[in-house]
Amino acid sequence: MFQKILTEEVFFLLNIRGQSLDASTLSSKLKAIVCLSLEGLLGILLTVGILDSTDDLYSVLENITGLITLLQIIFRSVILFVYKDNFLNSIIFLKIFWKADRFGATSFKKISNFRLQFVKILRIYRLIIGISGTLYLTKPLFEKHRMLPMTCLLLCDIHNDVCYVFYYIFQIIALATQLIMLVGFDSLFFVLLMCAYVELEQIKQALSNLSMKENAKGDQDEVLKEMITIIEHHNLVLGYIGIFNHLFKTALLFQFGFSIFSLCSSLFVMTTNGFPPTTGNFLKSGPYCFSGICQIFIYSAVGELIAQQTERISDAAYETKWILNYQPSFRKMLLLLIQRAQLRSQITVGGVWKLDMTTFASILKGSMSLMAFIQTVYYNKK
What we know:
Strand content: under 5%
Distance between the termini: 57 Å
Number of helices: 10
Largest sheet: 2 strands, antiparallel
Number of strands: 2
Helix content: over 70%
Shape: elongated
Mean pLDDT: 83
Number of domains: 1
Strand order of the largest sheet: 1-2
């Protein structure tokens, strides 16, 4: 099912921007060039527009969220271009992973239920991002004067209807391409990592299904062969997680850095006129802030989930029937597996912080602290 999601949904989203990992054609290259050119132009216009309003800290922070999101998207596009072959190599692992029905109907049903729950969460996440993007584009509806969703350099009079419509449509198209990359890249991350989670679950099932005979004396050749297969597959999955971490750690570092600043600016804009925020301020920054928190939360939750799953292999190994009779070779294999599994395989943010719920809490604290500092500077200037 995960491979189906990968090909039918993730690759489809990335292919809209011409950055699908499964094929590279002339049309896909042209689409990629058009999208990056569009976003590059928007980035220049946004930067100049923000620099023109540097005399007002509130205006800068209110409008910088669009630029932060854009920088995040451009960086992700570059990551996909530079490491395309590495991503393809990681996807090859999925072809040699065990089939979901390898250990019977009960195991298959458990894995299928997990996959269905994951798909639901992924689609809810996409819906949240889509709604937040739509609400972001409707910001001008809550203002008394004519304005655009994102403040940028204007080369014509915005009070002219043709000029206003042109810039509005330009920003809608640019934001749509950004949301496609945002959702596509995030989906790629979640799907690839959940494949590792399911494979570790398969290893737990393999340990519980060892064909051990209670009355046997000494090591059983069949059990030793099964253990060799399990240990080799465990090493394969850990290698896959290591490759995954190498591919995404830099992207995660930039993303979490951008997220801290964008959360801080959004919270600042919402609470500038006091707490609770006014309806206008909440509608302008609330959806963006909520989607940002959801994005960081699901990344951290998935990272925590995979780390816990790697540790549970040791529990599954210990629960085998190793105590029933004297099996020295089997016990040595089991001991090595337990010792390796007790070393958490952790996804990291830039190789510095662990991707888990502790990091999520730290990001929220850091955002609040930075917001408090900016508020102090802002009110002192006033």
